């Protein structure tokens, strides 16, 4: 067992109003997506939910029972690999989803298959994202993806695509090509929406600059754009034609939103048209001074 699995259960976190609100809202949206859009039209989501829908529609086994039984092995893995608090929060989310699905009756909103795929995926993705922000999951595939990622040369994305491709191929075999294609559209919409809900629409970007006018670039970023910077000592030069020529330089790194990158790059090029910089997308930013909200820094 890992160190995380031996940590005590954080009931304060599980039962906090913040966590419960995200979980309840997420479960409600996911249930509406299933009842009003996906299930009446044989559209699948990815992961364990997709397998449960596939078996339910193909063999008539109760969907709620399938959601619980299929997720149990993954919850056990989460208990051992990720942590008890996470496993309990995920179990609560799955159990709450089955309760809502049992009692909720929502009529089909539209018969247009494209609208069903897009809006069903949007609601499902929003629900999943809110549940993740609340600290849990309603689909155990994320756990097995993490396990294989740690124990194989494949990336988490490659594993996710491979496993969900098998589900979509099964859907094509059972229901036909068209429902499977719409299921792919539903799944793609859901995962992109989940990314936005979890990571936020204001995606952060790391911008690194190497310029002979490093002092002016520092002043521009800090004083004009009101951004914090980190400075590394380095050297510039080492060009193929003049490899022996090099100069000390301050390498400047700052974190901005993707909406600010273009404007900052143009301003830097006005100071030094030959400035070298590269951009990296980052998933999470915590601590330090990122932006101003009113008089507060976050």
From TrEMBL:
Gene Ontology cellular component annotations, sorted alphabetically:
plasma membrane
Which parts of the sequence belong to the DUF2179 domain? 231-287
Which keywords belong to this entry?
Cell membrane, Membrane, Transmembrane, Transmembrane helix
What subcellular locations does the record give? Cell membrane
- TM segment ranges: 20-39, 51-74, 86-104, 116-138, 159-177
Q: How does it sit in the membrane?
A: Multi-pass membrane protein
Please indicate which superkingdom the organism of origin belongs to.
Bacteria
Supply the name of the protein.
YitT family protein
Which species is the source of this protein? Algoriphagus kandeliae
Write the lineage as a comma-separated list. Answer: Bacteria, Pseudomonadati, Bacteroidota, Cytophagia, Cytophagales
């Amino acid at each position: 067992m890992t160190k995380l699995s031996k940590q005590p259960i954080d009931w304060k976190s599980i039962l906090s109003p913040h966590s419960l609100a995200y979980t309840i809202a997420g479960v409600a949206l996911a249930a509406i997506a299933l009842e009003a859009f996906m299930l009446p039209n044989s559209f699948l989501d990815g992961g364990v939910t997709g397998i449960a829908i596939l078996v339910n529609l193909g063999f008539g086994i109760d969907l709620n029972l399938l959601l619980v039984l299929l997720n149990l092995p993954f919850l056990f893995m989460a208990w051992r690999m990720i942590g008890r608090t996470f496993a309990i929060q995920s179990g609560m989310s799955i159990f709450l989803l089955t309760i809502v699905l049992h009692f909720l009756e929502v009529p089909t909103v539209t018969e247009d298959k494209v609208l069903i795929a897009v809006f069903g995926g949007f609601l499902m993705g929003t629900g999943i994202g809110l549940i993740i922000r609340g600290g849990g999951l309603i689909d155990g595939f994320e756990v097995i993806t993490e396990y294989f990622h740690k124990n194989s040369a494949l990336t988490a994305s490659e594993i996710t695509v491979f496993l969900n491709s098998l589900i979509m191929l099964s859907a094509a075999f059972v229901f036909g090509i068209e429902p499977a294609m719409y299921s792919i559209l539903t799944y793609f919409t859901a995962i992109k929406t989940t990314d936005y809900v979890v990571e936020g629409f204001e995606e952060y970007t790391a911008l690194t600059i190497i310029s002979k006018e490093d002092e002016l670039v520092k002043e521009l970023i800090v004083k004009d754009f009101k951004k914090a910077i980190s400075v590394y000592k380095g050297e510039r030069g080492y060009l193929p034609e003049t490899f022996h020529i090099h100069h000390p330089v301050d390498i400047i790194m700052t974190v901005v939103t993707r909406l600010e990158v273009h404007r900052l790059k143009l301003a830097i090029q006005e100071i030094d048209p030959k400035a070298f910089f590269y951009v990296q997308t980052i998933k999470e930013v915590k601590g330090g001074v990122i932006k101003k909200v009113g008089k507060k820094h976050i």
